[in-house]
Specification:
4 helices, mainly alpha, binds zinc ion, two-stranded antiparallel ribbon, 4 strands, Herpes Virus-1, Znf_RING/FYVE/PHD
Length: about 160
């Protein structure tokens, strides 16, 4: 590759340290035009971002300066970071929302709880057998009341001695 020399001082330098004016297409060492190598990298990586030498800039240019463009980009970046942060906050906020929903569903379910007193406990030895008897009695009672629903019973209070 042919060495690129600076229009200003005639010294050739590495490609990433040299920038061309988008108006006159002349090449300049970054040190001669007072911009940093990283600013050149930004200018070259962003499409639509152009740099103008001071000769071209002098001729009635009222476009934004490089420094102003970089400042603007930094502000945009800060805004984006703020947006990302608030997105994260919303996502973690949704978790609490989920909790709220499940709590409400739980409450909804408990509305259908009925406590029955004096349901005779089965003499069955196994606890699953007693549990089945409880459910059956509850189901029978509800059937008598013409309530059609599935019963899942839990006996409150101390279980009988044994299993
Ligand atoms: Zn130079
Ligand atoms: Zn120029």
């Amino acid at each position: 590759m042919a060495p690129i020399s600076c229009h200003c001082c005639g010294v050739s330098t590495e490609e990433h340290k040299i920038i061309s004016c988008f108006m006159c297409k002349k090449m300049f060492n970054h040190t001669c035009v007072d911009i940093t190598a990283s600013e050149i990298r930004i200018l070259k990586s962003k499409r639509g971002m152009n740099w103008m030498c001071c000769d071209c800039g002098k001729e009635g240019s009222d476009g934004p300066t490089l420094k102003a463009i970089i400042l603007e980009l930094k502000q945009d970046l800060a805004k984006l970071q703020e947006q990302i942060l608030s997105c994260k906050r919303t996502i973690s906020g949704d978790d609490t929302y989920e909790d709220m929903i499940s709590e409400m569903r739980d409450r909804e379910k408990r509305k259908f709880n009925v406590i029955l007193f004096g349901v005779a406990e089965s003499d069955a030895v196994s606890s699953t057998e007693r549990q089945r008897s409880d459910s059956e009695q509850c189901q029978n009672l509800l059937r008598e009341l013409s309530v059609d629903c599935q019963v899942s019973s839990v006996r409150l209070g101390k279980p009988r001695q044994g299993q």
